[in-house]
Structure formats: C-alpha cells, structure tokens
C-alpha cells in the first residue's frame, strides 16, 4: 500500500496488521525492532522546523514520554496484530 496521495489528494495510511513481522522500520530501515523505534521516539527525536507538534511536550522536551510499562503494553498490542495464519499462507508467499 502506498502512502502517496490517492486521487482525492489524501494520504493512505498503511495498516498495522503484521507490523511486528515487517522489520526493518522507518523510512530508511534504520531500526530492526519495534522496541528500538519506541526508544527513538522516546529519546532520539531531533528538533526541526517541520517537527510534528505532538512530538514536543509542554515543557519543551522532545519525543513521546512512555513508561516501561506503557512501552511493554504497546509492544504487546503491536505483536497482537500479527496474523500468523496469513503469514504462513502460501498464496501470499513471495
């Protein structure tokens, strides 16, 4: 699925289905695990003029503040979106 604008000019957002099985992550494949992606958004965000305001906390801190418990729950949720039957289906093998 493309994230490019469709014929209505809106971006199509890809599904999170099987996201845990689709590493590497980010536009450049920089991260090999979902945990490393969350670590980046917690402590690796760099300031820029185009930074999404949601990544700037009220105190000026950059990133998404997640406790260890929240991070573990988010990873568990993303893993729960994995459809093992779909991944093993030979009709979709590449």
Give the tags.
mainly alpha, globular
What can you tell me about this protein's structure?
With 94 residues, the chain is mainly alpha-helical. The protein has one domain (23-92). Helices cover 30% and strands 0% of the residues. It is built from 3 helices and no strands. It has helices at residues 34-43, 68-80, 84-88. The protein starts with 33 loop residues before the first helix and ends in a 6-residue tail after the last helix. The mean pLDDT is 90.
List the helices and strands and how they pair.
Layout: H1 34-43, H2 68-80, H3 84-88
Query: What fraction of the residues are assigned to beta strands by DSSP?
Result: under 5%
Separation, N- and C-terminal Cα atoms: 16 Å
Q: Uncertain spans, ≥5 residues at pLDDT below 50?
A: none
Mean pLDDT: 90
Largest sheet features:
none
Count of DSSP H/I helices: 3
Total count of domains? 1
What is the H/E order?
HHH
Shape: globular
Cα Rg: 16 Å
How would you briefly describe this protein structure?
This protein has 94 residues and is mainly alpha-helical. It has one domain.
């Amino acid at each position: 699925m493309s994230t490019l604008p469709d014929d209505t000019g809106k971006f199509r957002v890809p599904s999170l289905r099987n996201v845990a099985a689709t590493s590497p992550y980010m536009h450049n494949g920089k991260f090999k695990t979902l945990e490393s992606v969350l670590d980046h958004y917690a402590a690796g965000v760099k300031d820029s003029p185009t930074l999404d305001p949601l990544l700037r906390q009220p105190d000026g801190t950059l990133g998404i503040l997640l406790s260890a418990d929240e991070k573990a729950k988010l990873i568990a949720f993303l893993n729960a979106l994995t459809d093992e039957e779909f991944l093993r289906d030979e009709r979709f093998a590449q």
